[in-house]
Amino acid sequence: MRTATTDANVGKVDDMIRANRHITIDEVAEELGISHERAQNIIHNILRYRKVSARWVPRQLTSTHQEQRMAVFLFRMNFLFRIVTGDETWVHHFTLELKAASMEWKHLSSPV
């Protein structure tokens, strides 16, 4: 009887997650030729990874950076006022990721 929870498979799963934090359990299972349940057991119980939603972390801007951003904004705003005309039609140019697509694997010792 062959067991899927070998040291080799555990090492491969850890390498796969470190290479791609967005990888799914099904992708891991398919790559290694093991069941979904075995892949989930390796990830959650042996390697102690958990899936968390990726977050945008604001950074501290210096006053110089803030001034530069404001200058760029004002330039672009004036540029758009000269070009864009029309009625109140909304055009979305950015599509948000689904929450599931933005999730990442984190180890228990990783900072949140």
TrEMBL record:
Q: Which domain of life is it from?
A: Eukaryota
Q: Which organism is it from?
A: Trichonephila clavata
Per UniProt, what is the name of the gene that codes for the protein in this document? X975_20957
Task: Kindly list any coiled-coil regions of this protein.
Answer: none
Instruction: Cite the GO molecular-function annotations of the record.
Output: nucleic acid binding
Concerning InterPro entries, the annotation shows: RNaseH_sf, Transposase-MT_Hybrid
- Protein name (database record): Histone-lysine N-methyltransferase SETMAR
